[in-house]
């Protein structure tokens, strides 16, 4: 019977996790993060609500695995290429003169956060709320990377200077507080190990990194990564369990091992398809169970029985705000008050590490059940309030001055006409060519600013800043050289890469690395076939009066409206809608959503009218 109750509770939790995002979508509550909604649902079915979930071995194991996998994916989300001094062309319209370096600004802001958190922690100790200032400092200074990243993406701020700065502050906070939490367990935990033993864990991490770096591009590994073997995914789970086991062996928390595993995989630049599979498994199964169980285990009503805890909740919330907003005032040197206040507010969001710290504090006898529940409740409140206030302040961040920066490596009859036709308001182009390769001097002198290179040496090009761009187009006359440039650009963290190769084997290798490939032979064949079978499609692509246009849906007035009810009339046809990674064929029942990219065709006059209607509005 006990086993049956455990399975029944697991089924209830799984169903709750399944219907939560459906309810959010149905009632258009997209402003609430899914993880917060899962905790709220857990409160409803758990001790604070109907109390229909019983603890059991199934739920305990899966919830623990969910937490471990959440920490792994948090480490995997860190893009270490942002620590490199890469030149970003995006500059927000509300930014003052002299764009700051995001790395050192983020470091200074986090130091300020940590110092203020330490001072506030001693105040909580002095007031008798908690006995350990170290633990309270970690709770106040931590920032939820899992809330910051999607919020910045939704606001279209990931490529802006202020967006990079906010992201870096969250990354540094996540890394430092995670390591310090392990040190805390080693020092204060009854069963903890010695602090120096943590060096063994990091040494093992370095060893695994070099092993992975050596074998990741081996042909036999790439072969076994397909079909039913999926050796890359097996390697990831093996790495997680090895580092989790080693972490517990040296007396640290298992989540530190999981987080370290995630950072190692991120450093190795994993295949995007594999990352997508890991995300699907984690956020589709294990992680929702963990967050629902967080809500299940909180007894809100017991918090009202302790006046000390009731006083702590608003005081801790204020402390979280003060510890983030005050250091963020440093940004006022470059940004306006709205930007500074919004940045400080989104940095207030905190969740996963607070849950971990609260669980550890309770286990070590430093806090009781009521205090643990209060800490988690405040963390949930920050995740509810911070994104909402941030979105109210910013709306949807639009950067009118942003241009996509493109480096064309190889200036020839293939690339020069394309450069000439690119919109100068949307693209900033840089052309590179070797002195040895001859091109039409008259054309280059009159029409293009071509930078001459001694050779296509990738390290020398790196020194010249060739790879500090949004897009690389490698189109020299040597496909092997193009492939070498593309691989190096990938390692440098260039977001998009287009490479010209002709051989099928090399083309497949580039595609496996998620690099876009174009081929003169295949392009000519495809165009000829299209002219024979679908001449009207070719007309759309080549004739200016019936070209394809992209329109970004930024006007909230039309958010959620069905195409059949769309009031705009004119000589415009919607061909395709891109929503995130999804490609949607428009129908009458299709709803327009904020952030949609509409591919349309029609007369230039009507397209411009529609563009003005959808892309520019009073609140933008």
Automatic annotation (TrEMBL):
Annotated ranges, domain RCK C-terminal: 535-616
Gene Ontology CC: one annotated term: membrane
Keyword Cell membrane: no
Keywords: Antiport, Ion transport, Membrane, Transmembrane, Transmembrane helix, Transport
Topology class, membrane: Multi-pass membrane protein
Keyword Membrane: yes
Transmembrane segments: 6-24, 31-50, 62-82, 103-127, 133-153, 165-189, 195-212, 233-261, 281-304, 311-335, 341-361, 373-390
Listed GO MF terms: antiporter activity; monoatomic cation transmembrane transporter activity
GO annotation terms (biological process): potassium ion transport; proton transmembrane transport
InterPro entries: Cation/H_exchanger_TM (IPR006153), Na+/solute_symporter_sf (IPR038770), NAD(P)-bd_dom_sf (IPR036291), RCK_C (IPR006037), RCK_C_sf (IPR036721), RCK_N (IPR003148)
Subcellular location: Membrane
Primary subcellular site in the record, as a coarse category: membrane
Pfam families the UniProt entry points to: Na_H_Exchanger, TrkA_C, TrkA_N
Family to which the UniProt record says this protein belongs: Belongs to the monovalent cation:proton antiporter 2 (CPA2) transporter (TC 2.A.37) family.
Record's protein name: Sodium:proton antiporter
Species, as recorded: Halobacillus litoralis
